[in-house]
Write a structure and sequence with these properties.
4-stranded antiparallel β-sheet; about 40% helix; binds (3R)-3-hydroxy-3-methyl-5-(phosphonooxy)pentanoic acid
Length: about 325
């Protein structure tokens, strides 16, 4: 009745933003991501007949009510599928700042889906684990798989299933995560997406344009065309943040450090380094480059006063259960 699973975070190269079904958490646009090494969540779930309520500890501390409510709803779904009525204790640890726009909900729900189903005695395939994880967070559906992953758009009657485009050994790229603020973000991506979808005049154009972006990204990845992958990722990120800024109220996740990193990356490109950026729902900037250029890019990013911490990563593996020793 106890199991531990590890899942890695991911960055979206083509972003998902907006839903067709809020209850079932179904994305209105498809997305492509890269699962990251070095940024992971390790979660232990223990179902105990003696427990009266579910308990959740994040990084060793009891979680707040909002996080707990969201996780209990998710575990209710696991209880239904696995036909158990027992309450559980969940212990989850992140190797990186939580809820700061570094996809902790992605690795968090991917690890939780895998650990909880194993602990409840009904382990699922990776595809099924991914579909379950999507109920917790859209990006979590991608974190169940390693390497490059696509989560298509879907509808209530046709929920999407994430697919691995290529595993973590396909292309040894480097991702440098420049942390500019490690405090939790001011608004969750779930809430921000809802505001944008209802209140930006450009939402429909965003959804329409993503179809082409996805097709171009898939084909650039297959050709391992770094410049095209980088340029498309950057375009998708800027388009997403422009979309957020255009809603009412306008949503702006960036800080001065975010801007400084973007400008430095543009300068590096002028200086002949092939490096591109992407930004999810937070102020952190992820720089994407070839492995050979990682050290040069790291030196320049670390010299910026707005960069508090730099996490070096590459393609990471699929979610996995930790064997008991
Ligand atoms: O899956 P959520 O609710 O954490 O939202 C993900 C939002 C972005 O990270 C900005 C984009 C994406 O596709 O991961």
């Amino acid at each position: 009745m106890e199991s531990t699973a590890i899942a890695n975070a991911n960055i979206a190269l083509i972003k998902y933003w907006g839903k067709t079904d809020r209850e079932a958490n179904i994305p209105a646009v498809g997305s492509v991501s890269l699962t990251l090494s070095h940024l992971w969540t390790r979660t232990t779930v223990a179902f105990r007949p003696a427990l009266k309520n579910d308990r959740l500890f994040l990084n060793g501390r009891p979680a707040g009510q909002q996080n707990l409510d969201r996780v209990v709803r998710f575990i209710d779904e696991v209880r239904l599928r696995c036909q158990t009525g027992h309450r559980c204790e969940i212990n989850s640890i992140n190797s990186f700042p939580t809820a700061a726009g570094l996809a902790s909900s992605a690795s968090g729900y991917a690890a939780l889906a895998m650990a909880a189903t194993h602990a409840a005695g009904c382990p699922l395939s990776l595809e099924e684990t991914s579909s379950l994880a999507r109920l917790g967070s859209g990006s979590a559906a991608r974190s169940v798989f390693g390497g490059f992953v696509e989560l298509p758009a879907g509808e209530t009657a046709r929920p999407p299933v994430a697919v691995q485009i290529a595993d973590e050994n396909f292309w040894p790229l480097a991702v440098l995560v420049a942390v500019t603020d490690d405090a939790p973000k001011f608004i969750s991506s779930r809430a921000a997406m809802e505001v944008t979808q209802r209140k930006s005049p450009f939402y429909d154009a965003w959804a329409k344009a993503s179809v082409n972006d996805l097709e171009n990204m898939r084909s650039a990845l297959q050709r391992r065309d770094f410049e095209v992958v980088g340029a498309l990722a950057e375009h998708s990120a800027l388009k997403l943040h422009g979309l957020m800024m255009s809603s009412r109220p306008g949503l702006l996740y960036w800080n001065a450090g975010t801007m400084a990193v973007i400008q430095e990356i543009l300068k590096m490109r002028k200086d002949g380094l092939a490096v591109y950026f992407t930004i999810d729902a937070g102020p952190q900037v992820k720089a994407l480059c070839r492995r050979e250029e990682q050290a040069a890019v790291a030196d320049r990013l670390l010299a910026l006063p707005g960069v508090r911490n730099l996490i070096l990563a590459g393609p990471g593996p699929s979610a996995r259960v930790e064997e008991q020793s």
